Amino acid sequence: MSKFIGICIDKTLPDEIKESATIKAIEENSANNPFYAVSSTNFSNQGSVSPEIVGERLKFWKPGRTLRIKFLDGIPEIQEKVKKYAMTWTNYANIKFKFVQSGDAEIRITFEIKGRAFSYVGTDCLSIPPDEPTMNFGWFDSDTPDEEYSRTVIHEFGHALGLHHEHMHPEGGIPWNKEAVYRDYMRCENPETDSCWTKEEIDSNLFTKLDRTLMNYSVYDKDSIMHYRILKEHTFGGYEVGLNTHLSELDKQFIKKFYPPNPESITEKISFSQTEKTNISFVKNPKLNENLQILQNRRALERYIERSSERKHTASELQNKIPIEISKPERSAFRKSIISPRDGLALERLIGESDLFPISYLERGLKAANPVCRIEVRDRIGRVLGYGTGFLVSPTLLLTNNHVLENEDMALFSLAQFNYELDLNNTEREIKNFRLNPKRLFITDQTLDFSLVAMEEVSANGTHLSEFGFLPLLPQKGKILKGEHVSIIQHPDGAPKSIVLRENKVLDIFDDYIHYETDTKPGTSGSPVYNDQWIVVALHHAGVPDPNNNNNFIANEGIRVSSILQFVTNQYPNLSDNQKMLIDTISQSVEDLVNKTEKNLIQEWHNASTGYDSNFLGENYKIPHPKFRIDLEEDIVRQENGDKILNYTHFSIVMSKKRRLAYYTVVNIDGDNLKNVGRENDWNFDPRIDKKYQCGDELYVDNDLDRGHLVRRRDPVWGNSAEEANKDTFHFTNASPQHKRLNQQTWLGLEDYILKNAENFNLKVTVFTGPVFRSDDLIYRGVQIPAEFWKVVVIVKQDGNLSATAYLQSQKNLIDNLEFAYGEYKTYQVAVSKIENLTGLDFGELRNHDPLNHIESTNGHIIETYEDINF
Question: What is the pLDDT of residue 263?
């Protein structure tokens, strides 16, 4: 493995001395407590705490102190090189290095352990016996280049100052090819000189991710001196990191944070008495206060037993009736009211006619999962006690269980971790850590087993809490009925986010509680319980243990949202004005929620539309969208995802920003499957693009302008989705201002002719339609009114050849004076190339299938009867 010589290996303390090392680190520098600048007084008040230090902790020296450094061996030439490059850190950190030849030294250097470099991290050096090295350079000799000294010495002294490996940053996202890494790092050609690694060493030094607290919540820096060199053959996608030989700018900023020029800005050094040290105990399995969870489970069992007869009665009723029939009228009425009228399948499920869901149900579930987080519960010195689940119920407030966050102190030291989930490749996403701010608001109750706590709105790495949204809470009762199903999104056992989806029948609803069947595990405490509309109906808090076997659970219990909100409302008078403002952001009216749901459903409906099919006429007759002249590209309206094509049912549209009208529409017409569907009269804006790019009713009232369908209403109305297509044509994106005489006479006659021929001969037809935009078009009510409209009709003729014909119609003499319309209008069949010249669109090969393509006249010919059309 000679090509990998020069890689530092982590040097960690034996387990048996980690306890004393923790105390030494905090005694040296109280900032090594990542959450709290403790004093000996408040630390001793903690009493006997149990959980161990999990993973690593901060180990920085006190700023301004002098570190003594001693060489245990080595030749003077190499020692001088080490001194030279070690001093680099003192240019940016408020720390002094003093090289000594005798006596005590915090850092002791050897060159004897060949093939390896290492250093203990920061104050861990204080726990190493004084005759043993704390740092090693195993490959320096008289031929070693200066760049290698710079890279290795600065790196190892970075460890000695308390820095960890940058490639282990939790946000690094390095796409490791682990098999390739194992193969190369475990290869050992020369044990005398090569660094021969074990699989365990590779896992520990390369693939382990550190806690963000150890990185001071800094951003990942691939240029850091603390980063391993990474070869592209060890990653997927060619990711690589070169040999970093100097401090990066972020290295310099980072070290200044922990060794600032003003040492008085750091909390004074503290000392623990022997009694206080004894009171700090470390155990192997850190846990939350189990007594509280056991208490909640026992109370849940008592309630479950008390409700046995009511539960049996409900089960009996549900054998012959549906949930809505066995519920009180007011609950049933409210349950219906929170279902959007557009969600017909939900209404069918509620009345027992269907168990189907629209595919958008899953997409809405993903959105409902975003505000759910893992709560990492910690004590004052950063020890992980356990995990729970919580979720945002307003832009800044988090809801979880009381037995997860019992008090303000516990909330102060804990973290809310968002985005802890697996992606499509089963790889963990980047965790976003947020601190809690209980000083701003903390409301808790052990009986209802909830805690409501304020959050910091920005994480240390700059992520905004608003990115995750929140789950609004409804105070009304009736959000779920007995016999319905619920879903739970959770962090079981502190693992990545997972879901229990619907296989969870509601058994009972009473007082402040809901009982339901579901699959939950420890760590699920504090999870949201949802109905089918992804509205939160309860806060999960306890399992109902089997009386005959405490290791099994026969049901689960949630606290009703309405009860939690009532408790918070009762506390309202006792809150400060600022706290009242926070509480006011929790509840949402039913009308707001339904309107939001309605908007989301409309958005999802559009997103599910596949639009125009370019292969509609057959595999050998692909008709793509036209291309735009390059100067028009900036004027195209784009959706949030960057797409310029608005897809509807069987047709698509591309819009112009300046004109607020469609550049063109394109529709598939299936003459063999046309359906008769009643006309809609309600026109709608398309929510996928800004309304400012769409002309609404303000353009069409009190004048002779019609909202002319560019895609004619009946054209896409075919097949199983005919009704959806019919509704889709009534979007303002599909409307263009056309004088009523144009819209209702010749142009309509041409459309009729195309449609009837498609229907009579079972033809499939593709039709492009749009306006001609001219700079001198009449301006009316702030909108330039197109004077001409065009169509390009594409069919496959009986002889198997493609036909593309183009038509142009003018309404110029109709719109010269919209208040006093007059004059005649004409419709022309023109060459496709004529439309291309007028619009800036490029139809590609279609022009070669135009019967007028080789006719010299560019004016086309007038269409007075349908026999005049030349296919």
Answer: 55
User: Is residue 200 packed enough to be buried (19+ CB in 10 Å), middle (13-18) or exposed (0-12)?
Assistant: exposed
| Domain spanning 606-868: CATH 3.40.570.10 | yes
Q: What is the DSSP string of 340-386?
A: -TT-HHHHHHHTTS-----THHHHHHHHHHTTEEEEEEE-TTS-EEE
Which residues are known binding-site members for Mg(2+)?
743
**Does 816 participate in catalysis according to the annotation?**
no
Residue 709 annotated among the catalytic residues of the structure: yes
- 525 assigned to active site: yes
Q: Which of 164, 169, 234, 403 is catalytic?
A: 403
Q: What is the pLDDT of residue 237?
A: 78
Q: Which residue has the tokens 């319980």?
A: 529
From the list 449, 532, 704, 715, the catalytic residue is 449
Annotated binding-site positions: 743
Averaged pLDDT, 542-555: 81
Distance (Å, whole) CA 318 – CA 326: 8
Q: What is the pLDDT of residues 397-441, one digit of tens each?
A: 999 999 999 999 899 989 999 999 998 888 888 899 999 999 999
Give mean pLDDT, residues 637-656.
93
Among this protein's residues, is 464 annotated catalytic?
no
Whole-prediction pTM: 0.44
> What are the structural domain ranges in the chain?
2-265, 606-868
Cβ atoms of 808 and 756 within 8 Å: the answer is no
Check pLDDT > 60 for residue 203.
yes
Q: Which is nearest to 679 in space by CA: 732, 724, 638, 727?
A: 727
| CB contact at 8 A, 384 and 378 | yes
CATH topology of domain 2-265: Collagenase (Catalytic Domain) (3.40.390)
